[in-house]
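quick q for whoever's on today - can somebody do inverse folding on this one?? i tried earlier but teh output was garbage lol. tokens:
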């Protein structure tokens, strides 16, 4: 057995430490000739307190085993395959002292600041530094038919070049200055502050020097502010045309998504898609650069839900809707080599499927069956789509999809997973207004009429989302291994069922989304293998909002877990990281009708409140206010107080580190187990 073998524990679904140690598949890369397929794989570091990624090579033909390409203590990040099949990747691994990348200024920064792009030749051998700079690289993309890379380079506002940027970074660190001066909104995003560094674009031209690849870097944008925050991008095969999301300030309080084309030779920018009312994003350019497709996002109002459609832009710059009658929210992936077909992914009835859209007619054809398909890569001959597939019965696998028939075949990956402790079923019911309410039900091993299982209702976040793919953060099998049945409903506001299904719950969070959840729970509780008297509810983000709403509007559940939850819509709306988006739906009337804090006095169910201090989407103030309401309204004996608050000072919206994920599940399993009669609550050892 080699040290390249990835080991998986025999029973990670009941052993939380073993679960946290499971390797996790990341993204795919496909070489321009289709001969190399790479995947990233994350595993815990030696201390088990964070994850590190390495890149593995797969056999696109599906015959040979996977083998590891990169290994370092620091791990590897961004990656791209060049026109000659070479592999460019990001890493903070130590670089030889006598090898200075072309982007390193004469006043070299401290080693902790350095980030490098490394090059591993297609024929193998040792990787060597291609470029390095203070602050490193935020992303890289390669041309398919030219020796050109485009890189995102994080730089301080006002810095004229890399030397000035390195000096600013060094000066702030030495003086221990962390302050940020903002002059516009937003100021935060999910779990990090915006500033004082933002991405710019640079072009790296590759050449050979004494048998090694080297890169000459040319800036193609100056100080563009926060235009590239969270931006998707796509590059033509010749490396000349880059299309990219471009965040455009509309006021001091709002940013709108547009799509821009950048000539990588000159830096000249052309706005391809912008509108005073709507937004655009997620662009993809055809290989020959003649076509661009993106998503047109129709803005919501207090009474109208949003909508998303494909927007096709031809060589003249004219745009039109593609497949305007398709009632799904697609994300484009790639054009076929002849530009006759666009491939896209979209949520669809409990899956995230790959679709083929005919450019001329707008005809839409679903290619894939069950599962959620991501990181989709199209082969250069247009015959095969490679993807990471997940589902609630598949933590992650690599598949090849026939672009004509949709037939799937497996590609051997560096990891496989043990059998799951139960079975998955598709369930549904009919709401009082006659609308179908679907979901998934996990039934644990051993559940029967004679031995019914307790039920955990899990409510998804979003709210525009769906239970349609494997989640490492919300893994129902960790409860199934303890004998729980787990219900995963898609109520009103869920995606994959058409805009009308979203509209049912728009601005009415406490209305149809709530009643849909209760209707499907009612239907599942009538099953003989389910113990209706031992039911709990759980949710995170919007699911946490709904858990709070449930707590104030029914006492049917034995316990409720609310994670990263919205409590007071009035305070949430002005403190979240993208307040302008939520303000469109959260009118004063909506907040008064749907804020859970207004029903605090009705809460009788024991609640476990969980929140991270670095959660900027749902700020910690929401969790603190909920906890104060529970504590201040308690009128019983102090020792009988039934609620608990699990607080993470250095975690964000999701609680991502392995050790904290273990603590999270230990606390949750003990709390809900106690309230269905499985013994006293046991405080986790490290708490």
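ok took a stab at it. sequence:
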């Amino acid at each position: 057995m080699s040290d390249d073998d990835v080991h998986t524990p025999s029973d990670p679904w009941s052993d939380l430490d073993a679960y946290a140690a499971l390797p996790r598949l990341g993204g795919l890369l496909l070489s321009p000739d289709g001969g190399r397929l790479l995947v990233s794989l994350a595993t815990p570091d030696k201390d088990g307190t964070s994850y590190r990624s390495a890149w593995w090579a797969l056999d696109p033909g599906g015959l040979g085993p996977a083998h590891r390409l990169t290994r370092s203590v620091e791990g590897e990040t961004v990656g791209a395959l060049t026109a000659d099949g070479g592999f460019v990747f990001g890493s903070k691994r130590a670089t030889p002292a006598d090898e200075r990348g072309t982007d390193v200024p004469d006043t070299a920064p401290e080693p902790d600041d350095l980030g490098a792009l490394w090059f591993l030749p297609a024929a193998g051998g040792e990787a060597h530094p291609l470029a390095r700079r203070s602050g490193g690289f935020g992303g890289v993309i390669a041309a398919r038919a030219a020796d050109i890379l485009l890189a995102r380079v994080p730089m301080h506002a006002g810095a004229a070049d890399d030397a000035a940027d390195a000096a600013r970074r060094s000066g702030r660190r030495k003086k221990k200055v962390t302050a940020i001066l903002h002059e516009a909104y937003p100021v935060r995003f999910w779990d990090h502050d915006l500033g004082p560094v933002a991405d710019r674009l640079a072009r790296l031209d590759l050449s050979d020097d004494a048998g090694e690849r080297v890169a000459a870097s040319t800036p193609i944008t100056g100080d563009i502010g926060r235009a590239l925050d969270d931006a998707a991008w796509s590059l033509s095969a010749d490396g000349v045309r880059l299309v990219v999301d471009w965040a455009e300030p509309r006021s001091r309080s709002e940013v709108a998504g547009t799509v821009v084309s950048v000539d990588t030779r000159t830096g000249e920018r052309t706005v391809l898609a912008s509108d005073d009312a709507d937004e655009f994003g997620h662009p993809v350019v055809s290989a020959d650069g003649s076509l661009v497709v993106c998503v047109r996002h129709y803005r919501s109002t207090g009474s109208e839900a949003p909508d998303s459609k494909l927007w096709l832009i031809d060589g003249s710059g004219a745009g039109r809707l593609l497949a305007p009658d398709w009632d799904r929210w697609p994300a484009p992936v790639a054009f076929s080599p002849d530009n006759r077909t666009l491939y896209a992914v979209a949520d669809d009835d409990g899956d995230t499927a790959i679709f083929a859209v005919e450019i001329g007619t707008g005809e839409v054809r679903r290619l894939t069956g069950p599962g959620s398909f991501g990181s989709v890569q199209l082969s250069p001959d247009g015959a095969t789509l490679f993807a990471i597939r997940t589902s609630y019965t598949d933590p992650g696998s690599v598949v090849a999809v026939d672009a004509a028939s949709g037939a799937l075949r497996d590609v051997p990956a560096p990891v496989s997973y043990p059998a799951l402790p139960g079975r998955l079923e598709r369930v549904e019911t009919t709401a009082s207004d006659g609308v179908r309410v679907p979901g998934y039900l996990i039934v644990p091993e051993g559940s029967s009429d004679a031995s019914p299982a307790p039920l955990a209702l899990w409510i998804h976040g979003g709210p525009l989302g769906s239970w349609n793919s494997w989640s490492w953060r919300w893994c129902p099998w960790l409860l199934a291994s303890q004998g729980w049945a787990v219900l995963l409903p898609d109520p009103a506001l869920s995606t994959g069922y058409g805009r009308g299904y979203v509209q049912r719950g728009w601005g009415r969070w406490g209305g149809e989304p709530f009643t849909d959840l209760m209707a499907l729970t009612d239907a599942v509780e009538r099953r003989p293998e389910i113990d209706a008297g031992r039911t709990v509810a759980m949710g995170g983000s919007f699911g946490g909002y709904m858990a709070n709403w449930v707590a104030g509007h029914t006492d049917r559940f034995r316990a409720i877990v609310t994670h990263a939850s919205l409590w007071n819509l009035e305070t949430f709306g002005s403190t979240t990281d993208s307040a302008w988006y939520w303000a469109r739906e959260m009118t004063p009337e909506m907040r008064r009708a749907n804020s859970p804090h207004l029903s605090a006095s009705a809460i009788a169910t024991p609640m476990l409140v969980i929140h991270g201090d670095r959660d900027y989407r749902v700020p910690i103030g929401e969790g603190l206010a909920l906890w104060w309401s529970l504590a201040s309204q308690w009128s019983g004996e102090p020792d009988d107080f039934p609620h608990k608050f699990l607080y993470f000072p250095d975690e964000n919206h999701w609680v991502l580190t392995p050790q904290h994920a273990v603590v999270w599940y230990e606390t949750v399993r003990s709390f809900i187990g106690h309230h269905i009669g499985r013994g006293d609550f046991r405080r986790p050892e490290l708490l």
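fwiw Residues 386 and 400 are 4 Å apart (CA to CA). also The radius of gyration is 26 Å. so keep that in mind when u check it
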